[in-house]
Design goal:
This protein is mainly α and 253 residues long. The chain is built from ten helices and two strands, in the order ααααααααααββ. The protein has one domain (46-252). It has helices spanning 3-23, 45-65, 68-80, 92-107, 111-132, 149-169, 173-184, 190-193, 198-215, 220-239, and strands at residues 243-244, 251-252. The protein has a two-stranded antiparallel ribbon with strand order 1-2. Helix 5 packs antiparallel against helix 10 (220-239) and helix 6 (149-169) runs antiparallel to helix 10. The N and C termini lie far apart (113 Å).
């Protein structure tokens, strides 16, 4: 064998060995599967109820202003909202009642019907709390410092109605009675009555009549009917001023 042939064979052997030792690209490695997205953090029952409190309060205050359109969005939120786990057993029917009442608020353009439906929603919260043996921690309600004049009179009305609201929501007979007595004891003076229309004078008398009935209300059903009529009356009376008044910023019709 010639020397030249030996050199060629040696070169080919080295090439073949190099190819077997990684001269070609290795197959691509399999990609690791994408990590599943983390589940959303669980919402505690307490935080969930705080959301409900806020939305129901928005509904009630909008109705008192006479602003039924502003009551519909938070009412629909309550009607559509999915409950979180962790609510006490046996409270499901009360949640259904609350959602049904909220849906009724969103479905009507009649302020009186909306007011009664809102009262039912508030009361459903109270009966649910009672069934679960839970006492919600509600914000403190401070009595108005100045109750003079028509504006001070309205602040006293607002304070009394807020106490009655808490009486239904907690539920608390003491808060309900305290609110009813505060509303009954805050009529306009003769001087103030000369500054408002005859229609408002009629509503003023009706509010204090309802407050007297509220203080003697024998059961929850009676409280719902009376409270619904009170906040519906507030809405109608505010509408007589030509503006939407009550809790929140005034809004021109």
């Amino acid at each position: 064998m010639s020397r030249r042939l030996l050199v060629v064979l040696a070169f080919l052997s080295v090439t073949i060995i190099a190819a077997g030792c990684g001269g070609s690209a290795p197959p691509p490695a399999e990609e690791a599967p994408a990590a599943a997205p983390a589940p959303p953090p669980a919402v505690s029952a307490g935080a969930h109820m705080a959301e409900h409190f806020t939305k129901i309060r928005e509904v009630e205050e909008a109705i008192i202003r006479g602003d039924i359109e502003s009551a519909k969005a938070p009412a629909q939120w309550i009607a559509d909202h999915q409950e979180t786990a962790g609510l006490p057993a046996g409270t499901e029917n009360y949640v259904i009642e609350m959602k049904s009442a909220a849906k009724a608020v969103g479905a009507t353009d009649d302020i009186g019907n909306a007011a009664v439906a809102a009262a039912k929603a508030v009361s459903s919260c109270g009966t649910c709390h009672a069934a679960a043996k839970v006492t919600p921690k509600l914000p403190d309600e401070a009595a108005p410092a100045d109750t003079s004049g028509t504006t001070g009179h309205m602040r006293k009305h607002q304070y009394a109605v807020n106490l009655m609201y808490r009486g239904l929501m907690a539920p608390s007979q003491d808060l309900w009675t305290k609110g009813a007595e505060a509303l009954k004891a805050s009529p306009l003076t003769e001087k103030d009555l000369t500054k408002v229309t005859k229609e408002i004078v009629v509503f003023e008398a009706r509010v204090h009549e309802l407050a007297d009935r509220a203080a003697k209300a024998p059961d929850t059903g009676a409280k719902i009917a009376i409270y619904g009529e009170i906040i519906g009356g507030c809405a109608t009376c505010h509408g007589l001023h030509g503006k939407v008044w009550g809790p929140g910023l005034p809004k021109t019709n």
